[in-house]
Amino acid sequence: MQLTLRGLMTGPTLVFLHALGASAKEWKPVLHYLPGRDCVALDLPGFGAAAPYGYLNVAAMADWLADEIRSRALSSCVLVGHSMGGKIATLVAARAARGEIGLSAILGVVLVAASPPSPEPMDEDRRAEMIGWFAKKQASHAEAATFVDANTAARLPPPLRDTAIDDVRRSSREAWLGWLERGSREDWSAEARIISIPALILAGADDGDLGEDAQLRLNLPHYVTADVQVVQGAAHLIPYEQPQVLAALIEGHVANVTQAELPADFARLLGSDRVSRRTRAALLDRLRPPAHAAIWTAENRTTATALVAQILPDADGAAILADRILSGIADGTGDGWRFAILPPDREAWQRGFATMAAYGFASLDLGAQARLLERVADGEVGNREDEAQLSPEQMALWFEDVRAETVRIWMSLPTTMAAIGYDGFAVGGDGRRKQGYTRTGADDLEAWQPTVERAS
Q1: Average pLDDT value for residue range 211-232
Q2: What percentage of the chain reaches a pLDDT higher than 70?
Q3: Which pLDDT score is estimated for 10?
Q4: pTM of the prediction?
Q5: How many CB atoms lie within 10 A of CB 6?
Q6: Cα–Cα distance measured from residue 356 to residue 306, given in angstroms and rounded to the nearest whole number
């Protein structure tokens, strides 16, 4: 079974994964507050209408979710995983970040009181009690009610509480025991690694085992960029307890990741077998916000953003592009050369920023910024006396390097490639035979090639 809500808005499809003892029904209160989104809430194998599947181990559950995503041929999606579903969402996101075929649609992850890739923290006496409920039979109504009430900050109203209790009782005995005895105890940290897909990590203020501390220790370290927030008035069953708050938080995260959304035809090509795993992973990584390098100040980033906006006035996302450029300069992954009279890139950019700051560049209006940059290009701006700045001659060459680096990074983005109709990355997958091109005449496209018109 699945719950599907088709909204009128464009944007990523939200794929919802429930907790232990729940089903797709736990997301109905949340979907009510997401009327404009395309949403798919799934019954994980062993639960809800999928209870007859019995227990799938963690590896099989991740394979199942990956196949579900591939089968829908989604051009973009965000995974929303609650508790047990969060562990599965993280493992599939890790595979997507490494370039696995058919998973390039995953733009973001929302973890709701999520079980981590490492063993889930749980009081062992409570684990034993929960195992006892299903040891020889299905849980009774009283036992299921005990489970639901223990995981909420306040008693749920009757309709929601009844649904939650019924879901626990119809869970597969094998799936319930399999997760508590094995799945929740498995350590997948090495497989999860560090994931470049941005995440929103949520914790209930009154959640004992998987609250804020557990999320900071066990889930946050697996994501390059993540925002951790605490939901007040909730324990573990946040989708039932605070559905409107949860929906608003999900909407905010979706808005943050949609800058990485690609046109549907281009996204399908990037996710196809015409693209190697390493190429796909590299291109997808360019869609995701880089971590801020410690060497750059907030003023440096403001200056870099203003420079990018002047160099590429019609390009979207100047701040994100600036962060990506600065990340490359900090890491030393630039274009491999520099002008002889300039110091190494990191120092040159730091001194270039200091020189621009001396002229108040970032605080000027757009017209004044443009006029100052014209003077920089003409060799009229600089300081020969201050070793923390660049001379006029150096500034002219540094600004040339800034322009080249900005355009180089911008052209390397999949969003730019989609906009100009470039598909040269899709000529050789991981098979022994590289597909290449069959037709090479001007304006003579092959069936697999997305034109700019098709990709828009």
Answers
A1: 97
A2: 97
A3: 63
A4: 0.88
A5: 9
A6: 11
According to DSSP, residue 286 is labeled T
The superfamily CATH assigns to domain 2-260 is Alpha/Beta hydrolase fold, catalytic domain (3.40.50.1820)
Which candidate, 48, 82, 239, places its Cα nearest to that of 160? 239
Q: Distance from CA of residue 292 to its chain's centroid?
A: 16
The single residue listed with the structure tokens 């929601």 is 160
Phi and psi at 157, nearest 5°, equal: -65, 155
For residue range 140-176, list pLDDT tens digits in order: 999 999 999 999 999 999 999 999 999 999 999 999 9
- Looking from the CA of 238 toward its CB, the CA atoms found within 13 Å total 31
Nearest to 47 by CA among 169, 182, 171, 174: 171
> Which residues are CB-contacts of 392 (< 8 A; sequence separation ≥ 6)?
379, 380, 381, 382, 384
Given a cut of 60, whether residue 77 has pLDDT beyond it is yes
Strand-strand pairing, 39-42 and 2-5: antiparallel
Strand partners, 427: none
Q: Residue 158 is encoded by which pair of tokens?
A: 């009757």
Q: Report the pLDDT value the prediction gives residue 453, as an integer from 0 to 100.
A: 53
Q: What is the residue extent of each domain of the chain?
A: 2-260, 264-285+414-455, 298-411
- How far is 197 from 290, CA to CA, in rounded Å? 10
Residue 98: half-sphere exposure toward Cβ, Cα within 13 Å: 11
Give dist(CA 259, CA 288) in Å, integer.
9
Question: In angstroms, what CA-CA distances link 41 with 37, 38, 333?
Answer: 12, 10, 41
